[in-house]
Amino acid sequence: MNGYNTTDNVVRKQMLPKYLQDVVNFSRRSDLTKNDVITLQKLVRKARRMVDRLAQNGEPNRALKTSYKELLDAVESCSDKALKRAIRTTVEEKSRYVAERIARTESARARYQGFLKDTIDDPDVVAYRWVESTRHHTEDVCDEYAKVDAYGLGPGIFPKDKAPELPAHPHCLCHYEKVYVIELDELLHGLGSMERFII
Q1: Cα(101)–Cα(172) distance, rounded to whole angstroms?
Q2: pTM for the full predicted model
C-alpha cells in the first residue's frame, strides 16, 4: 500500500508548504506576461533551493523531497494535467510523511514509557544515560542531553527523577540506558556515598 487515498479520519490532508503553494498559485495565472514568466522562474529556483535542503543527513523525508521536485518540474512544464497530478501526489506524500512522523514519535514515546515502568522502582538502577540514535545527524537538543553533566554523574547521565522525557522532538529515536549503582560507583569512585542517588 502506498499510503495514498487515506481518509481524513486517519491523518488530516496536509497543505503544500507556503513557498510551493505560492509557486503553484503564480503559475496558474492565465495572464502571465514575459516579466511574470521571469518572476515565476525566480520563484521556482528559490523553491528548488529550499527543497534541496530536505532529506539531508539521512532525514526521513526523501519521498517528500522527490514529490516536491516533481511538482516544480510540472510547474516548469506548463502542463495543467501534469501540475494537477503533481499537486495531488505532493499533498498525499506530505500527508503520508506526517502520518509516519506521528507513528515514529509515538512509538518512541511508548518505548520510553515501557522503559520507565520497568526501571523506575528498581533500586539497582539509579540513573539513566542518554544515548543518541545512530540516525541522529543534525545538531539539536539531543546533543546537549548526551553531553551535559548537570548532576556530576558524567556526560549524559541523569538521576531517574531528573531525566528529560523522550522523545525530545518529532522523529527522535534516542533512548536511555540503565545506569546501575555499581556502575555509577565506579564512575564516581571516591566522590562520596551513593545514597544520594538512590531514589
Answers
A1: 10
A2: 0.72
